[in-house]
Amino acid sequence: MYRTTTRTAAQPANFKAASALDTKVARSGNGILDRLDPTDLRTLLSRSERVELRSGDTIARPGEDVPFVDFPVGAVVSHFQILKDGKTAEIAMTGREGALGIQAAFRPGVSKEFSEVLVGGEAIRIDAAFLRNAADRMSGCRSAFFDYFNENLDRISRRVICNNYHSVEERLCLWLMLVRDRCGIDSLPFTQEQVSFFLGVHRPSVTLAMQELRKAGVVAYSRGTVHVKEPAAMIERACSCYSSLSVKDLASPGTDGRTNGNGRMPVKVA
Question: How do residues 173-195 score in pLDDT, each as one tens digit?
């Protein structure tokens, strides 16, 4: 059901095309990189490439090396574990607020979980060894990476609580809004089977919850697409975890020069 790729330095398979980034940009489009001093940002971008992550690709699996770090600007990625009985548990989600494999910016290591692309889009890819060197030399980089690492641990802790104590409808609303926040689009490319996989619940439970949301007029759905019609109402129906897990403080793609439409990279400035 799910395509798989392997994160390797020699041949990163999970992108359609890669190209060097123009370093003359006002913003990168990624929340971590945009915390950096402009000089530090230019240094990192000078050793980066733009890649496109494809929806449905598994870009990391437990035990695999992490040769590079991806900073999404349009893509959204789910991180999850698969239990021995086949059940799944999503533990985190990463979009333009964060980075994939950020632990490799501190020391060499391997992935601890599965990572699958939920919404395809672009990312800024930087060699992990170069990032470690940059973190050693540039205190701003080290602080930005460390701050995000701690923020992500907080989000993971919140997800554990959420998965255990909140209803399917609350978690469904939360999950859809978390994806929407990170990609900036209202029409989300998911089937109910996919949603049930990432929520770790049976599909009939998702079907019933989705029917209730459609009756309330907050979503519409057709085969393979869920359209968020009333974001404010979705937040009201989501569990209280939304305020802790959302990234709504990041501007949507195309609204402030970080990216143009559809999560594309920003235009260079003189």
Answer: 999 999 999 999 999 999 999 99
**Cα angle 118, 121, 125; round to 5:** 105
pLDDT tens digits for range 95-125: 999 999 999 999 998 999 999 999 999 999 9
Which domain does 117 fall in, by range? 3-162
Indicate which CATH number applies to the domain containing 225.
1.10.10.10
Asked whether residue 41 carries a pLDDT value surpassing 90, the answer given is yes
Across the chain, mean pLDDT equals 85
Q: Parallel, antiparallel, or unpaired for β 76-82 and 88-94? A: antiparallel
Spatial CB neighbours of 190, under 8 Å, sequence gap ≥ 6: 118, 224, 225, 226
Which of residues 131, 147, 162 is at a domain's end?
Answer: 162
Q: Is 11 left (phi over 0), alpha (psi -120 to 50) or beta?
A: beta
